[in-house]
Design a protein that fits this description.
By secondary structure, this protein is α/β, with parallel strands linked by helices. The chain has 17 helices and 15 strands. The N and C termini lie far apart (45 Å). Bound molecules: pyridoxal-5'-phosphate. The site of pyridoxal-5'-phosphate has 15 residues, from helix 6.
Length: 462
Amino acid sequence: MSSEQRFEIDDLRRADAGHHLHPFTDAKELNRQGTRVIVKADGVYIWDAEGHKLLDAMAGLWCVNIGYGRKELAQAAYQQMQQLPYYNSFFQCTTPPAIELAEVLAKLAPSHINHVFFTGSGSESNDTIVRMVRRYWDLLGEPQKTVIISRNNAYHGSTMAAASLGGMKFMHAQGGLPLPGFVHIDQPYWYAEGGDRDPVTFGLEVAQQLEQKILELGLDRVAAFIGEPIQGAGGVIIPPESYWPEVQRICDKYGILLIVDEVICGFGRTGKWFGSDYYGIKPDFMPIAKGLSSGYLPIGGVMVGDRVSQVLIDKCGEFAHGFTYSGHPVAAAVALANLKILREEGIVDTVADQTGPYLQQRWAELAEHPLVGEARGVGFLGALELVKDKAKREFYPKLGKVGGLCRDLAIENGLVMRAVGDTMIISPPLIASEAHIDELVEKVRLCLDQTLQGIPKLNFDE
Ligand SMILES: *Cc1c(COP(=O)(O)O)cnc(C)c1O
């Protein structure tokens, strides 16, 4: 580690409370508690300003796939900033890193996807897709085809269009969302919503809601369907195996566009390059971000399949959309260095063949814990349902109390694990070794024991 810096934690907290509005945060509550200031990181660990070391089982926000502290990315940024810190891709121009990154991405993506439109984030990628979808149908003489069908509890970002695509009720409740033209069907969340049906039947039934919704709205209005291969922010919800083939069948039957949100699943999280590869889905669009640069710099993109790109190229004229930072050369150079490491170090294959199966085997052992109703996962994603009654799949009242306790205990035990209601979720850096996985599972088990002990002291009435 480089030179040790000292931090005046009280000054930092005071300034933060005074001037900084945080995303997805209750500001009053945060200012009462004080921010956790993260000051350095290496590999799978982060350190806060008070010197606590934490195993980061969330890879930041699902993004630090290659782990922290890779100097190659710092060097790529340094060199590119000296050579050319910025130029845009508007007005018949571009830069070498943007070109090279587009070519590398086209090679990595499924074979029918050969173009990318660069953005600065996942939200911008999904906003861009809404515009492309509408433009596509307009160019084909069907301008009334504008409705996009999504799922309840989906997460596709926080801009107006991305939050409308998403199915988070608490987000919609702030600001009059969703915008017109966004419709939601049920999510494939068997554990909480499957009832007496077996997972395969349930998966088919929720997928078939897509067909019902198309018929209800009229095919002349429905433009596209969007889904995350595995819902991340919604609680690492892994669809039954029957789900995606049925969604694909319905999209093919009616000719609507299929958007597969790869912002989390992309770049190795499932042990394949994309969640679409894992499930054998054939998307028309793949929004990407997060793991594209392992979070070292902000960059996103929309991977566009041939069906749409050919229409946009041949018929559109000027596509009136773009961002100042579309294809930013420094961000693109860093993304290239990240993809080089993922490829050359065989990180995705290691997740598929060694560490992913090991994590899933160790994670599954947690299902024996009295508090755990289900332990599920794919690749380097995992979730635990914390429940009152395992046999009945019954949660504790006031969803979020038990999960919140477990998350706070995790921090005390040196582990970053997230709670979505009473679902504990992980998404570790893809470079975590078997020893790191053992440390993770031991810490989680300790948290579960302490949570179980703490539940009688929780006040479920307030
Ligand atoms: C994080 C996320 C987004 C939004 O990405 P931002 O870079 O935060 O705008 C979109 N889709 C999914 C599936 C995500 O997890």
